[in-house]
Design a protein that fits this description.
alpha+beta, two-stranded antiparallel sheet, extended, 1 helix
């Protein structure tokens, strides 16, 4: 993985997050089943 800003067409690194029920969700598992869209929201407050 290289440091720096993400550019259009760059592949997202594989990562793990938890869903609302606490189960781990890996990006590569989503991609193996369906197309995926990543949305990053910023919280101000």
């Amino acid at each position: 993985m290289t440091a720096g800003p993400v550019k259009v067409g760059d592949k997202a690194p594989d990562f793990v997050v938890r869903n609302t029920e606490g189960a781990e969700l890996r990006l590569s598992e989503l991609w193996s089943k369906q197309k995926s869209v990543l949305v990053f929201l910023r919280h101000f407050g």
